[in-house]
Amino acid sequence: MDTIEMTEKYVMKTYNRYPVSFVRGRGCYLYDENGKEYLDMLAGIAVCNLGHCHPEVTEAICEQAKELIHTSNLFHIKPQAELARLICENSFGEKVFFCNSGAEANEGAIKLARRYAFEKSKKGYEIVAFKNSFHGRTFASVSVTGQGKYNEGFGPMLSDVKFAEFNNLDSVKAVISDKTCGIIVEPIQGEGGIVPATEEFLKGLREIADEIDAILIFDEVQTGIGRTGKLFAYQHYNVEPDVMTLAKALGNGVPIGAIVAKGKAANVLKPGLHASTFGGNFLATAAGVKVIETVSKDEFLESVNEKGNYLKGKLLELKKEFPHIIESVRGMGLMIGVVCKMECGRIVEKALEKGLIINCTAKNVLRFAPPLIISEEEIDTGIRILKNILSIF
Ligand SMILES: Cc1ncc(COP(=O)(O)O)c(C=O)c1O
């Protein structure tokens, strides 16, 4: 039985997978079982920001695996402490909690907001979230996800969640009250179609959260770790949240998530209130240390902006050439969405056949989230393949 047959037989069919099984990756390239090469402009959905098998991350993982992998959080863990320090020194954060995924980080952030309200004897436990958002698949995170398709048939959802319109402060004011304990928002909606928040909107949320003493949570699971050209997307906006959630690229492929908090939010989660067996173990945090050390360098982030502008420019040229297909190009850094005038699943399939990996989000948005180490030549290669494909539609 080959990999595809075994998957079909033994793995729960929760994904519609493409008929490809990769066996090796280097930098921006993946190789399948037949040796075919693919240019990866998706990076495992914004995870492998340093590319596949980045030599220093791989070395850090291998060295750590030879020494010690897991002890539990009953004891101190050196790379965990180092990673927490690096995150705090490079962000607004003062304290970090480690977990294993984005959904889990958001789950913990929502618990934190509710616990803060409990300790302040607030009048209620309502969370304000946004339509079209995506925060993960666990119960709390799917309950604050503003797209019905993700929670249909799983109800009842977490109670006391109110949805407002993204980038619309009036709609937030309409649902906010002294019962609100938290607001959760993505600085750029990822699964919702690469939709950046406006500065006015995030600043307005900050003011509202301050007025009613609620916890403002930025979900930076997809936007964090250099993806947008800053280490964290909030740094584009001159607004700091109380809590930021991270995952995806923090381990460059090793599962890890984090809740970063400051001020009134920093010490809400006390011993016994929240925990994770694997969270922040030696292996995951050793990878995370190398990732943050590399991505946080000014030259590295500058190069992300340059390459982001380069890719955006090339995509805008394609828009001119294919106005019947491409409506607009949006995003920040190397998190770019090409809004199409048609559903774009077929474009993604054709691209894969031709050795280019991209994906489709919100039905009609082609998502580009390549490894941040991509070169201009590699971008040119991707654009050439895409151009050939668009000419057949
Ligand atoms: C903004 C955002 N939050 C949370 C998640 C969930 O992360 P995970 O799949 O690691 O649970 C995702 C995943 O795509 C995401 O994009």
Topology:
Blueprint: H1 3-10, E1 22-26, E2 29-32, E3 37-40, H2 43-46, H3 55-67, H4 78-89, E4 95-99, H5 102-119, E5 126-130, H6 139-143, E6 161-164, H7 169-175, E7 180-185, E8 188-189, E9 195-196, H8 199-211, E10 215-219, E11 243-246, E12 257-261, H9 282-295, H10 298-321, E13 326-332, E14 335-340, H11 345-353, E15 356-357, E16 359-361, E17 365-368, H12 376-390
Parallel strand pairs: 3-15, 5-6, 5-7, 7-10, 10-11
Antiparallel strand pairs: 1-2, 2-3, 4-12, 8-9, 11-12, 13-14, 14-17, 16-17
Helix pairs in contact: 3-9, 4-9, 10-12
Bound molecules: pyridoxal-5'-phosphate.
Task: Kindly list the characteristics that best describe this protein.
binds pyridoxal-5'-phosphate, single chain, Aspartate Aminotransferase, domain 2, four-stranded mixed beta sheet, seven-stranded mixed beta sheet, 19% strand, globular, Aspartate Aminotransferase, domain 1, 2 domains, alpha/beta, 393 residues, 36% helix
